[in-house]
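Input record (one chain):
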Amino acid sequence: MRNPNGYGSVVKLSGNRRKPYAVRKTIGFNSKGHPIYKSIGYAATKAEGLMLLAEYNREPYDIDLHKITVEEVYSRWSARDFSKMSKSSADVLRSVWKHCKSVYKLRYSELKAYQMQECIDSCGRGYSTKSAIKTLFYHLDRYALELDIVTKCNSSLISSPPVPETKKRPFTPDEIDAVWNAVNEPWVDSVLVFLYMGWRISELLSIKTADVDIETGTITGGTKTKSGKNRIVPIHSRIMPMIQKRYEENNEYLFSCENKKCTAARYYTIWNTIMNGLSISHTPHECRHTFRSRLDSAGANKVCIDLLMGHKSKEVGERVYTHKTFEELKQTIALLQ
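The corresponding structure, as predicted from the sequence alone:
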């Protein structure tokens, strides 16, 4: 049956082609009266071509956008959205993009879920990288949907491995006692500050003396996420004397090495010396696990724990409607006996 005037046509091209049927529409005529065609796409079968033509007539799309590649979508999206994210989140997505090389040159409109999944499965990395690739495709899909490049998000069909069980071990009560027994040894105070305030190593080493408020008994610090930055953490009464001693040294950074900021590499050397001297084996981050575990065991409010650690509460109600006062945070810290 003949298509209506102006509807378009599907014609078979010569030669051995993977998609031999050209889908096109007449948009005018040249000086010799020959038709000028607008290419809509190509199809493997005539039936597929007619479906493409019907889809275009139902809701015409921008041909240039329809032809845009995955690489171009990433370039446009990243230029727009990376500035809206935390630096760490943008850096992660920028890093995992290299694992998607196999689809760079594909038209985004033709990108399939199985091709996204192959990028995840073949990256040769752990669960965190695979999860980040999935997140990247989710963002690209949402952007492509905004531009009407696609009509559905194939990223909803892909998967990444679940988070494995943590291998972190909290300090035992006996190990915490051992740290207290060595409190007068160099830098052991830093271990106790980890255990009683829950900082990350990068956060602890970035604390400036100016960030300490002895009068209110607080330290302002934090990095990594919006929830973690510039959070106010009360100083536990048991570690206040050692914080005050460091404060009175009046160095730029609270934990300084020769009046300079201590690097993570240098601190790990200090840490390993302390752990070897105590005959225990832990990482600085396991202090953070210990902090959370001990508060949880003491019955602390979960929102207060998240605020102290710089985590975003998982429940929407907790994030939006629950407001905790500074006094409640002090009471939470005091639960660590």
